[in-house]
TrEMBL record:
Organism placement in taxonomy: Eukaryota, Metazoa, Chordata, Craniata, Vertebrata
Annotated organism of origin: Oncorhynchus mykiss (Rainbow trout)
This protein's GO CC annotations: cytosol; ribonucleoprotein complex
Name this protein carries in UniProt: Elongation factor-like 1
GO terms (BP aspect): cytosolic ribosome assembly
Gene: LOC110515557
Keywords: GTP-binding, Hydrolase, Nucleotide-binding, Ribosome biogenesis
Annotated segments matching region Disordered: 166-185, 839-885
Length: 1063
């Protein structure tokens, strides 16, 4: 049979019950692509022996292959979002590997159902030389490993659901929805069950008797499920297939005398049914064909199996050719896998309500808090209807580039031009010849998509409630709805590998390519004809972009091509990021070394098509402070005086004063403001919490900004609840005398107003509004005096915040962002002179224009006095306010956002930097978690490479049933370049690492350390010129940024040697 025709595919698309959207997921080199090739090669072809039995239904299977390397896990995310099921492949020798766990987690997070293929069983026979009995035990252990991963995901979900239920019950109790009579004694009795007993996990685990496991060797072309052997042996043995199906996998054996299947094979030392009826046959075939090459036995086997092979295959010098020829007819892998897929994986009609609600609950919004019209769209998802009345819902998971010549509409014109070769044609411009276009990789969840149809494009921050108020139908001239655009789907394509087939319409439940969206969609997007649809939740990426390089063209004249190429790369790669730094450098950010190389190759060959040069990787660092160390570098106890002497290295001046306790006081050059700042290290848990809550803090800042500008920012109840939880968790973590009421005194977060650093208001007498003011549900009008004070210092208040933002954005060590530092402002005095000589130069026009802001000056002066501790704020008398107005009318007006504001920003920034330097300062390095699988022979070499690169081994365990060790370690990103290659070279390819960005870690060594105690002098010598890792990193960053590096280039240069002549 030939390939399936396009008309037949179009007919199959209209029946979503027989459509299967699935992807192939696995660790690197576990056989994904080989299996995918086998499935694609069998397109429309079914074994002639089974054609009549199994061809009751025709299925349309949309198969998406995905890469296995951790650097490309973003591609896995784009594939998983469009699918309803997944084939998870596990190597029979290596078992569950790090990326296997990652893909199972990604499938779980997207609520898609997986099936399992245990591949490379031939390696158990040929490489490990296991007997069939040993192989059975080994396969059982692999199944247990996979099920353990799935079970842990299930348990965490059940516990999370229970926590949410309890939270809702508490809310209902507070609102009075639950009457005491309904739950008598509820306060006295506590339900200790975790909810696992009641949860249904019958369909959760992989088990051959459930039909969701296939055993295969894709390279040799065979694969089977136990259903196939149950059918074969039920006819031969006269036992019902249902009985065999339940007993073929498990602790059952065949009692030959009684002709019964009995339990307890392991206890009685009997051969299990799976070994006797399945594995023994495969082992015998391999023994006859590959090991012994026994022609007579091979012929007998072929006759009993009813298999015929071509003469050239039987005479081939490589026995694997004959083996593949026999197995591909006896147990074709494509047949086993496709039957399992059609039988066990859900169709688009079977999408669960839980998955739909999760897709629509973007950001801080829950499904039940969405508008009613939005919630009604859930029905459209569930029905997967292709009616004209059904709303069109499409999700674009990625954009991929296609050569314009490969598009179907351009291929037809090529056929015509082929007949006109004799005619002279004008040479096309180079740009036109090499034109490429983007095609969107998408899936239809509801409705029918038609060519030329107009749809809404929902941005990630689109609010359906706002959209429903402003727009009803899709039109070219939309009202200005935030984060909503309109576009036309110019062309629709059926994706057939590298080939594209043009379609007029695509019904619901199918995967397709869409042309003409490159101007509207950057990486991924939600499309719909209904403005009630919210954007889908963002794709879940396992790998974080962390590796940066600066890129420039070899020839400066080609810069426009590079800019265009990087823009195209940014659109085509889901994980890559492109940005322009303050220095003007074009920077590419990727997930890892392999990803970086792939992106650079794509830039050279596809997108920019020019020669480019890339800098050495730009390694990100963070700067922080720690508590004063109690021991020196040789673990000797430090006295208090010694600690102070080592830490405080800030040079004092007439405007800068350092208190022994670490308080830095700095006065502006015009002597009109003095600020006192102290740096305090934040607890590690607080830093992690702030880093993980960046989006929430950004929302909080936006709400505060809107309130200051007199606007209102609509926030859902869920967002407010999440902010309340964040606040309460901060209060729990910030305990102790020095953190008393610290959470309510938070002035700002930084850098960029949402980073993991805090500015604390410890100024006596300055009662500014808390950053949490938007959490007040009932906002009453405050007293007039307090309101005046709040608005009074606001101008200069913003200057203090700006100084803090600048200080946290680039620290004093090497201009890298700060992390985990709290700056407490303990003094802020403002002293304006009563008269100013330069006021005379102000023109009458300027005076009139300034009159409008006089009304703010009384409060401003009140605030200034309050800040310096001279006034009582809201409770002052009218006479004090009048005096304040008089002072402000002379001193305040000229400086509003003028030179004084700039001086205050600079003063706060410098005070923060000096306060930072007054504490023990450290660098923080980005760390990878590294998982390496290696045999015992090369274990020492792996440890050697890790030790050389500042790695730290966390765990080492032997994989049960194999000779492989799994080493878990952490490795600085700065030391990771070339690490994978070195590991492979040193171990002759027997070990391969997987690196994933994990966390930031403080480097223990002090970059500015010099020996001070007698013990340190004895241990390190006077120069202490042993390698200081932190200093090496710091100097490397400073050198790259063009900052001053303190280092000796020449030492003991008394002698000079001339190398021009060697005599």
């Amino acid at each position: 049979m030939g390939h399936t025709s396009l008309d037949k595919i179009k007919a199959l698309q209209k029946n979503p019950a027989n459509v299967r959207n699935l992807c192939i997921l696995a660790h690197v080199d576990h056989g994904k692509t080989t299996l995918a090739d086998s499935l694609v090669a069998s397109n429309g072809i079914i074994s002639s022996r089974l054609a009549g039995k199994v061809r009751e239904k025709d299925y349309l299977i949309n198969l998406i292959d995905s890469p296995g390397h951790v650097d490309f896990s973003s591609e896995v995310s784009t594939a998983v979002r469009l699918c309803d099921g997944a084939i998870v492949i596990v190597d029979a020798v290596e078992g569950v590997c790090p990326q296997t766990q990652a893909v199972l987690r990604q499938a779980w997070l997207e609520n898609i159902r997986p099936v399992l293929v245990i591949n490379k069983i031939d390696r158990l026979i040929m490489e490990l030389k296991l007997t069939s009995q040993e192989a059975y035990t080994h396969l059982q252990k692999i199944l247990e490993q996979v099920n353990a991963v799935t079970g842990s995901l299930f348990t965490s979900k059940v516990l999370e659901d229970r926590a949410v239920k309890e939270e809702r019950a508490e809310e209902d109790k507070e609102e009075g929805d639950i009457k005491p009579a309904e739950c008598p004694g509820s306060e006295q009795v506590y339900d200790w069950s975790a909810g696992l007993e009641d949860s249904d996990d019958s369909q959760l685990y992989f088990s051959p008797d459930q039909g969701n496991v296939v055993f295969a060797s894709a390279i040799d072309g065979w694969g089977f499920s136990i259903q196939q052997f149950a059918q074969i042996h039920s006819q031969r043995m006269g036992i019902r297939a249902e009985v065999l199906l339940k007993t073929l996998w498990g602790d059952f054996y065949l009692n030959a005398k009684a002709k019964k299947i009995m339990k307890g094979a392991h206890a009685k030392g009997k051969k299990p049914l799976f070994v006797q009826l399945v594995l023994d046959n495969i082992w015998s075939l391999y023994d006859a064909v590959v090991t012994r090459r026994d022609k007579e036995k091979i012929e007998k086997m072929m006759m009993s199996l009813g298999v015929k092979v071509m003469t050239r295959d039987s005479r081939h010098s490589d026995p694997k050719v004959l083996l593949s020829a026999i197995c591909s007819q006896w147990l074709p892998v494509s047949q086993a896998v496709l039957f399992m897929v059609c039988d066990k994986l859900p169709s688009p009609l079977d999408m669960t309500s839980e998955r739909i609600e999760r897709l629509m609950s973007v950001g801080a919004r829950r499904f039940h808090s969405l508008p009613l019209q939005t919630q009604e769209l859930k029905t459209a998802f569930m029905q997967c209807s292709s009616d004209d009345t059904a709303p069109v819902i499409v999700f674009v998971s990625k954009m991929f580039m296609v050569d314009a010549k490969a598009l179907p509409q351009n291929k037809q014109s090529e056929g015509v031009s082929g007949q006109m070769q004799g005619l002279p044609l004008k040479a096309k411009p180079e740009e036109e010849e090499e034109k490429e276009t983007f095609v969107a990789f998408a899936r239809v969840y509801s409705g029918v998509v038609r060519r030329g149809q107009k749809v809404f494009v929902m941005g990630p921050k689109y609010d359906p409630a706002q959209g429903l108020r402003m727009v009803r139908i899709v039109s070219a001239c939309l009202p200005p709805v935030p984060h909503l655009a309109c576009c036309t789907m110019d062309s629709l394509y059926l994706l057939m590998g590298r080939e594209l087939e043009e379609l007029e319409e695509v019904p619901s439940g199918n995967v397709l390519g869409i042309g003409g969206l490159e101007e509207c969609v950057l990486k991924s997007a939600t499309l719909s004809t209904s403005p009630a649809l919210p954007p889908f939740i963002p794709l879940n990426f396992e790998a974080t972009p962390i590796v940066r390089v600066a890129i420039e063209p070899k020839h400066p004249s080609e810069m426009p091509k590079l800019v265009r190429g990087m823009r195209l790369l940014n659109q085509a790669d889901p994980c890559a990021e492109v940005l322009i730094q303050e220095t003007g450098e074009h920077v590419l950010v990727t997930a890892g070394e392999v990803h970086l190389q792939r992106c650079l190759d794509d830039l050279r060959e596809r997108f920019a098509k020019i020669e480019i040069s890339a800098s050495k990787p730009i390694i990100p660092f963070r700067e922080t402070v720690i508590r004063p160390p109690k021991v020196d570098m040789v673990n000797e106890d430090l006295g208090k005086q010694q600690k102070v002497a080592v830490i405080h290295q800030v040079k004092e001046s007439d405007t800068l004063h350092l208190d022994p306790s670490g308080l830095v006081t700095l006065t502006t050059p015009n002597r009109q403001a003095t600020v006192g700042v102290r740096a305090i290290p934040l607890p590690e848990e607080v830093t992690l919490l702030l880093e993980g809550s960046a989006d929430l803090i950004r929302t909080l800042e936006q709400a505060g900004q809107a309130q200051r500008e007199g606007r209102t920012l609509d926030m859902s109840t869920w967002t407010l609840d999440a902010l309340m939880v964040l606040k309460s968790r901060l209060e729990v973590l910030l305990q102790g005398r020095k953190w008393r009421n610290a959470v309510d005194r938070i002035w700002a977060f930084g850098p960029r107003r949402y980073g993991p650093n805090i500015l604390l208001n410890s100024v006596e007498g300055y009662q500014r509004p808390s950053v949490w003011h938007c959490l007040e549900r009932e906002k009453g009008e405050k007293e007039g005096g307090a309101k005046a004070e709040a608005s009074a210092i606001r101008d200069f208040d913003n200057s203090v915040v700006s100084g803090f933002q600048l200080a946290t954005l680039s620290g004093p060590m090497c201009e890298e962002p700060l992390m985990g530092v709290c700056f407490s402002v303990e003094r802020w005095d403002m002293n304006f002179p009563t008269q100013r000589t330069h006021l005379d130069s102000v023109t009458e026009k300027d005076s009139n224009s300034l009159d409008a802001s006089v009304s703010e000056s009384p409060g401003e002066a009140v605030g200034q006095q309050g800040a310096s501790g001279k006034a009582g704020g809201a409770g002052e008398t009218p006479s004090q306010a009048e005096g304040a107005m008089a002072g402000a009318s002379h001193g305040r007006l000229v400086d509003c956002y003028g030179p004084f504001s700039g001086q205050l920003i600079a003063a706060v920034k410098e005070a923060c930097r000096h306060a930072f330097q007054a504490k023990p300062q450290r660098l923080m390095a980005a760390m990878y978690t590294c998982e390496i699988m290696a045999t015992a022979e090369v274990l020492g070499r792996v440890y050697g490479v890790l030790g050389k690169r500042e790695g730290r081994v966390l765990q080492e365990e032997m994989k049960e049933g194999t000779e492989m060790f799994i080493i878990k370690a952490v490795l600085p990103v700065a030391e990771s370049f070339g690490f994978a290659d070195e590991i492979r070279k040193r171990t002759s390819g027997l070990a391969s690492p997987q690196l994933v960005f994990s966390h930031w870690e403080v480097i223990s060594s002090d970059p500015s350390w010099v020996p001070t105690t007698e013990e340190e002098y004895l241990h390190f010598g006077e120069k202490a010129d042993s390698a200081n890792q932190a200093l090496k990193y710091m100097n490397g960053v400073r050198r790259r940024k063009g900052l001053y590096v303190e280092e000796k280039i020449v030492e003991h240069g008394e002698k000079q040697r001339t190398l021009s002549k060697n005599k």
